Amino acid sequence: MERAGGRDGGKVAILFAQFAPYHVDRIAAAAERLAGRAEVIGIEVADSSATYGWERAGGVAGARKVTLFPEQRYEDIGSAVKLRRALRTLQEANTVFVGIPYSESWIMALTAVLRLRGCRVILMTESKADDFPRKAWLEMLKRAVLAPYDCALVGGERQAHYIRHLGFRTRPVLEGYDTIGNERVRALVTGKRQPQWRERPFLYVGRFVEKKNLAVLLEAFALYRKGAGPDARRLVMAGDGPLGGELQNLAKRLGVAKSIDWPGFLGAAGVAEAMHDALALSLVSTTEQWGLVLNEAAALGLPVIVSPNVGACDRLVRDGETGRIVATTDPTAIANAMRNLAKSEAQWVAMRAASLAISEAGDVRHFADAVEKLIAPTKTAS
């Protein structure tokens, strides 16, 4: 493993459960920004999990990469074992950014011990108040759990508001957590042929789980197909999960099974190619803390159909300009948005340009900005 960085900021560790390409984007961006001032160490607990089928990450440019448990699944490792190895790995760190849910028992213990060691601990979170019904007693408990953290790095405005409510009113809270490397995503489809506008399908990318509201999306697609007639677009449902069979059966009952493609889980390159070829991305979740597929869509100039529950809406969607924001549980509203996006190529081209323009707001540069402000505030980039 290559050692990078300098001495002024000491050793800065960035901890995640498992690396996806966008985690690598953030660590590499932080390492580039802090080059000569701090050594950045990117730490993943495991390189696979039961939840996400991401490809195993390679190296991280400019940073030292550590996998605590190579060739193991995150869920198969005991909390005490994770804690011991993490503490041993982090013993020389001056600052630790924690991107694993603070509700996990071993993370509670880890952050408490790190503070006792005199280490600066920074929370990374995308939770917002409207994700779930909140109970006052549980919110008070969260405040106690979050006491070891010095400051927080969050996705956007709603996330910042919520974390301040949880006791960070006098602690620094910066935005820029939920970002990706726009240039990395664009490079995945460089030189790829642009399909004809009428060939472009609607697209969903993600897990097949309850919160994604996919039954309503399929109902909406059936209504859209009924109204659009022979000019109706196809729908690509890219992903996997426990509801896969149920959703395919629903598509048959709705009479749209032959109009839907189910390519399964797609890696980063496959997602970029699917977005490159699509008319619009649909994400109408009932609960969605952020939704990084919106960052990827914006990076590629893909208009979107989203629910207001999606956290990334605040930063990356302008209703009527980059796509449509629709009522979460209203199939008719979603179907109307589909019809609207499919009716005019000129309108779609304008939305595509607006999406590309707003994509900078979701770029990893903002993560690097926030890290720099927290680690080397006197040298923050403008």
Automatic annotation (TrEMBL):
Keyword terms, alphabetized: Transferase
GO MF entries: glycosyltransferase activity
Q: Pfam families per the record? A: Glycos_transf_1
Key word Transferase present? yes
Keyword Transmembrane, does the record have it? no
CDD domains per the record? GT4_PimA-like
Extract the InterPro entries matched here: Glyco_trans_1 (IPR001296)
Give every Glycosyl transferase family domain span: 200-346
- Which PANTHER family does the record cross-reference, listed alphabetically? BLL3647 PROTEIN, GLYCOSYLTRANSFERASE
Q: What is this protein called?
A: Glycosyltransferase family 4 protein
UniProt source species = Qipengyuania atrilutea
